[in-house]
Amino acid sequence: MPSQHPTWLPWSSTALPSVLSSQSSKEFKKKKRKKPRSRFRLPCQKPEARTLPPQHIRSVLMLPSVDRSSLSTKKTRKTRFICMGDTHNLSPYQGGFKVPKGDVLIHAGDMTKQGTYKELKKTIDWIQKLVEDGVVEQAIVIAGNHELTLDPPFYASHGHNWHSQDPQDPTTCLSLFAPQNLHPSITFLNHSSAHIILKSPSGPGTHFKVFGSPYTPLFITKVNDLCDGSRWAFQYSPFPNPESEEIWKDIPSDTDVLITHGPPYSHLDGWPVSVGRHGTAEAHKGCEGLRRAVWKVRPKLQVFGHVHQGRGVQRVMWRDGKHVVGMEEGCACSYLEAEENGDKVKVTMPGDDVTHDGDNDGRVGTGTKEMAEKIQGSTHDHAQMEWIDPGAVDDRISGKMSVVDVTKRTRMFGGVGLREGETLMVNAAVRRGGWPYEGVNKVVVVDMELEVWDES
Fold first, then answer.
1. pLDDT by residue (tens digit) across 34-43?
2. With contact defined as beta carbons under 8 Å apart, do 367 and 396 qualify?
3. Cβ(109)–Cβ(262) under 8 Å?
4. With 80 as the cut, is the pLDDT of residue 359 above it?
5. Can you say how many angstroms the Cα of residue 232 is from the centroid of all Cα atoms in its chain?
6. Among 33, 171, 306, 318, which one has the highest count of C-beta atoms within 10 angstroms of its own C-beta?
7. Alpha helices in 133-249 (DSSP H)
8. What secondary structure letter does DSSP report for 272?
């Protein structure tokens, strides 16, 4: 009976002499026992090794075919960003807040309260000291609407509303941020871009392209009894004015890291407003023009501040396809903040002051599975992708850092690292609430995979 082995196998019937198949089993046993030299003896050498065809392997393992051309061959390495904004004259060297060790410091503007030379010099000094002390290898800084003197056209028209008693010289203030006056490892971006390369032998050796801008939509603030209202620095006409979209067309399409002082619309931009006995609702203060620009560019990381109440993190999966009208987000996975309040746990989302307590007696251990389940129950269907701030839940979990890990080895977001085309958004406001400020947030630490710099 002919063999049923596939003909491509090395032991197929085509490799055996035809006479062997017709020989009786009795004769074969006798010859095998006497071990005679026979012309029917199989060759001693091993058959030539052959590889299983790909189509056979797939049929056995039921795996889909892989398009190798779509797989990235770029080498990446974890890079740590220390993200902050809205420090408003606080200094880590004066106990204002803590800055953990990392690779790149990002300050998203509002370093000061009114942008005086003294305030600006103080901020530049402590950022430079962080670099010199080896806390970070590089620092990237942008201005915000509070840096009044860094916008000379604005200051010429409106500076007297703010500094009537102590007028400042914008040229002198700007000179603090001139490349020749800054530490070589500090980059100041004023609606401009740069290519950052981390070359320290002890660093990750990665690189990225960054764009930074201080601009935010226009709003008016009453300064004092002598001034009914004044605009701030670096402002433009809000959406739907065409200016709100035109200004963001300057963002290069290959931007990896985007730093803006203000948030995009509907992303960590909630300003809680009262709606009677039903609690609060969010009044979004972000820019729709900026959101549309980010939808197109899709940087890996966007850091901003400005709206202090929106402090937190979102992982955004942008939606595409023929069934989508306009520019939409497929999923926005939000930051949750959990704080101990006596024997209870207060769980809030940006712009939400509703407290979700634990069990009937309100006792839920922070940093526990029960805690996570309670939090998950108060969120949307993508709760498994939520980031629960380790620094806010329990300092014992990861020291005192508010860390978000989107590397390949992350244990957050269901163990799924940041994928191509996704954007991690970070509102890194350090000061809490509006004036007078209500406290201090921790800086947000972001661990992210970036491409390794190849000098060749």
1. 555 545 454 5
2. yes
3. no
4. no
5. 29
6. 306
7. 152-162, 170-175, 243-246
8. E
